[in-house]
Design brief:
alpha/beta; Rossmann fold; 4-stranded parallel beta sheet; 4 strands; binds nicotinamide-adenine-dinucleotide
Length: 109
C-alpha cells in the first residue's frame, strides 16, 4: 500500500493542487479540512481529476483527537500543513480568528 499523506487544509487552493500532485506521485492524499474557506464539492472534483475517490476528513486541526484518529485510521506517514487563514481581516473565519490562533498555539505544546 502506498504512503498516505495528510493534507491539512487540503480542500483549499494550494492543498487541492498538492493533492493532485501527491496522487500523481503514486501516494495517497488524505484531506483534513473544516471547510471554513472551501467547498465540499472540491473533494468530489478532485476524485474526478485523480480518477479515484479522495479520502476526506471534515474537521478542525485544533481538534487533537480528530487529528490523531485520522493519522491512525489512514496510516499517515507524512503531513503537509496548509490549513491556515490567509488574512485575519478578510477571512470568513473572522469571528473565531483570535481564538483559533491561540488554541493552535496551545495544541503545539
Ligand atoms: N495562496 C497563496 O498565494 C499563499 C501564499 C503564501 C502562503 N500561503 C499560505 O498557505 C496556506 C494555504 O493557502 P491557500 O491559498 O490554499 O488558502 P485557502 O484558504 O484556499 O486554503 C486553506 C484551507 O484551510 C482550511 N482551514 C482553515 N482553517 C482550518 C482549520 N482550523 N482546520 C481545518 N481546516 C482549516 C480552509 O477551509 C481552506 O480549505 C495558508 O496558510 C496561506 O496563508 C498562501
Amino acid at each position: 500500500m502506498s504512503d498516505s499523506i495528510l493534507l491539512t487544509g487540503g480542500v483549499g487552493f494550494i492543498g487541492s493542487h498538492i493533492a493532485v500532485e501527491v496522487a500523481r506521485a503514486g501516494l495517497r492524499p488524505v484531506l483534513l479540512d473544516n471547510l471554513c474557506n472551501s467547498k465540499r464539492g472540491v473533494v468530489d472534483r478532485l476524485g474526478q481529476i485523480i480518477g479515484t475517490p479522495v479520502d476526506f476528513v471534515e474537521g478542525d486541526i485544533r481538534d487533537g483527537a480528530l487529528v490523531r484518529s485520522a493519522i491512525r485510521d489512514f496510516g499517515i506517514t507524512s503531513v503537509i500543513h496548509l490549513a491556515g487563514l490567509k488574512a485575519v481581516g478578510g477571512c470568513r473565519c473572522r469571528t473565531t480568528t483570535t481564538m483559533s490562533w491561540a488554541r493552535c498555539a496551545c495544541l503545539k505544546r
